[in-house]
Each structure stands twice: as C-alpha cells, then as structure tokens.
Description:
Layout: H1 2-22, H2 27-40, E1 57-72, E2 77-89, E3 105-109, E4 119-120, E5 136-140, E6 144-147, E7 150-156, E8 168-176, E9 185-189, E10 205-216, E11 223-233, H3 236-254, H4 266-287, H5 297-324, H6 333-350, H7 354-358, H8 363-372, H9 374-380, H10 396-430
Helix pairs in contact: 3-4, 3-5, 3-10, 4-5, 5-10
One 2-acetamido-2-deoxy-beta-D-glucopyranose (NAG) binds next to β9.
Amino acid sequence: MKKIILIILSICFIVVGCFISSGSASINDAYKIHEALFVNNSYNRNIRPVWNQFQAVQVQLYMYIKSIQEFDEVNEKFSFIAALSVVWYDYLLQWDPSLYSGINEITVSYDDLWVPELTLSSPSSRSASIGRSTDRIRVKAHGECEWIPAGLIESTCSVDVKGYPFDTQTCSASYVSLGYKIHEVNLTAGFPNVSLIGYAPNALWDLTGSKVTTEAIGGGGESEVSFTFFMKRKSAFVVVNIILPIFFLSILNVLVFVLVPESGERMGYCITTLLAIAVYMTIVSDMLPKNSEPMPVISYKLMIDLLISSLIVLVTILNMRMWKREDSETVPKMLKVLYKILSCRKCRNSGKNRKIHTDNNNKVEVISINKSTKKNINNDDDDANDNGDDDDDITWKRISHMFDMIALVSFTAMSVISCVVYIIVAKLSAN
Ligand SMILES: *[C@@H]1O[C@H](CO)[C@@H](O)[C@H](O)[C@H]1NC(C)=O
Ligand SMILES: *[C@@H]1O[C@H](CO)[C@@H](O)[C@H](O)[C@H]1NC(C)=O
Ligand SMILES: *[C@@H]1O[C@H](CO)[C@@H](O)[C@H](O)[C@H]1NC(C)=O
C-alpha cells in the first residue's frame, strides 16, 4: 500500500516538474515574437538600433582565449584560437515575455538584424572580417544581443628576436568596426584583460599576461579594441638543441692544441669543428626572421665562434709548419727570448725536472717533449749553473709546444668570454 502511494506521489512530482520547467510556450508564441519584432516593426538591419540617432551604440567585447596555435617568427604571424563575445543593446528588439508565455530569449540569424560588423585590423590572412551568415545571435527580452564569433584568429605580429631564445614577445589582435565612426558605434572592453577560462597551455610559449585597450583611430575615426598578449618563450628546447651543443663545440674546438701533432689529425679535427659551427649557424638562421633590425644576439655569437674557429685553423696550420722544421734550423733569437720568459720562472723553482713541470697543463705535451727532446732533457740534468748554454735546448718543436699552450689558453679564454657575454646580453635584451 505504501509503495503504491509512493509511486503515485513521485509520478505527480514528475508531471508537475515537467509543467514548471517547460512551461507551455508553443511554437506560435515564438512565431509571434518574430512577427512582432521583424515584420510588424518593419525592422531594417541598416538602421542603428538606438532611439537617439546622435548617440553611439555601445558595443562590449570580451575575449576568451582557448590556445595559442602558432607563433611564426619567420613570417611574423601569430595565430590563436579564441571566442569573442560581442554584446550590445538593440532598442528595437524588446518584448514583454508575459505576452508570449514567458519566452525571454530567442536566437536570430546573423543576416536578419543589425550587427556591429567587426574586422581584424592586422590580419595575416585574407579573411579579416569575422562575421559569417551561419552565426546566430541571442536576443534577450530587454534588448540585449550577444554574438559569439569563435575560431582561429590570425594576426600579424612584429617579432623581436634579439634575445633569442630568452625572448619575450608582445602580440595583439585589434578589432575595428569599419564603416562606423566612434560616435556611431563605440567599441569598449568588457574585461580589463583576456579571460583564460578554458585556456590550454602552449608547449613553446608561456602566456604571461594580457591587456585590453580601446582607442579612436586618428582621433574621432573608427573605434578600435586591441587585445594584447605577452608571451615568453619556453627556451629549454633551444637551449638543449642549439645553445649547449655550440658551447660543447667551442670546448672541443680549443682541444685541438692538446692533440699530439704526431697523430697528423689536427687539421682534420679543426676543420670538422669549423664545419659543425657553420651548420649550426644555418640551423639557427632558418629559425629566425630574415631581418637585421634588430639582429638576434645569437647570430653575432655564432659569427664570433666561426671567427674563433677560423683563427684556430690558421694557428694550427702555422704551428704545424713550425713543428715540422728540422732541429738543425736555428731558432730566431726573439723566439728564444720569448720561450725563456714564458717558461723560466717555473723552471728555476722546480730545478732539474723543469721541462716536465713547465707544462703541467697537459700530459700529452709532456709525453711529446719527452719523445722529441730526450737529448735536451738529458742535457738539462746536469746544468745546475746554466746561463747562456741552454739556448741550444730550444728547438722548433719546443717553440711549437709553447705556441700550442699560448693558443690553448688564449682561445679558451676567448670562447668562455664569448659564451658569458652572449648569455648576459641575450638575457638583458630579452627584458
Ligand atoms: C502584426 O500586425 C498584424 C496586422 O496589423 C496583426 O494582425 C498582428 O496581430 C500583429 N502581430 C503581432 C505579433 O503583434
Ligand atoms: C565610448 O565608451 C566609453 C566607455 O563607455 C566612454 O568613456 C566614451 O566616452 C565613449 N566614446 C564616445 C565617443 O561615445
Ligand atoms: C585580469 O584582471 C583581473 C583584474 O584586474 C585580475 O584579477 C586577473 O588576475 C587578470 N588575469 C590575468 C590572466 O591577467
């Protein structure tokens, strides 16, 4: 018995609920609204919907960004997916919902009523006007119209890659209601910034902020609303794939002076690193816009690396010539003096093992000294009171080793300085 009462009660609730929620608005009511608004009023979509025609139609724009689609540095193009919500009041589209069984919203096709046609003022593709006849506009009983054009927005953006890959970019998409002056249609910003509701982060760019500004083009012309986006590049990819390899190449490049000359590999080695740097130069220049204003700092950095690498090739060639000379050929006095100045302070301190300890920077050279100048080292063992005699010890091979050391130290310093300066300048110009 109780069960039956319960079932009857719940059926009653469902029936009452249906009546309340769906009301009893028939298709005739909707038809009458459209007739009253568009036929009996003789609605004309060319007439601005304000009573006082000296007043502007106030149009509010809200933007909801969904995702950044692409930021193309080479073609200076910024595209993103967003929905725009355009809201205005239409004086002619008002009705009393109680006369039409409580219907308080209708939707109307884009082509049937007045709309503030919007145009993207900096488009990067052909379709700049955003209205489509398939759009629908929601009209409320008190005259509020809302139009939500959504889709891919492609805007041009002037790119500043000076601090690449630590750069930040500022791109904006501006809308203007072409054909109407600001005293006819006044576009205003709904939010102070772009709404991030439903935003999906981009893999390459961080959206760090946004702002919305309005202005009258040329003071009293058309009104324009600009949505500006501030983006920061996620630099990990470029750092791992380009910056770090370039640093490693610089380190490898100077190690040519550690390579033993006997191996005969020196020329091949330094030419290979020169080519590798040239290849990275090509890769980087493909990723950047082909303009020189402003030049990316990384291009200068690569150019300097290429220069250092070329100098290394040059020094290696000259040094090989020196190394190949016969021991019988006399060494110019100037070089001897230089050799003594550079090596003597240490050799005095370390006594008779001086030739080995002179070059404590690298073992390879010690080995080659041992090999090539064994006779000299043996001579050195008993010259505790040497003065002018050890001039004969100084052979071309030793001079060549000396130049190797000088080149190793100076080119390492150059490479380190170029890396440090690059990072500092790139970071500074990014902000
Ligand atoms: C529209 O005008 C016609 C003729 O004047 C009238 O019969 C009809 O009731 C009007 N419709 C509405 C919805 O007011
Ligand atoms: C446009 O609207 C803004 C905000 O409502 C207002 O400050 C401005 O005076 C309006 N401009 C014109 C020309 O009506
Ligand atoms: C947008 O502006 C509001 C109010 O000024 C602020 O609270 C909010 O954090 C801003 N949102 C973004 C994404 O900047």
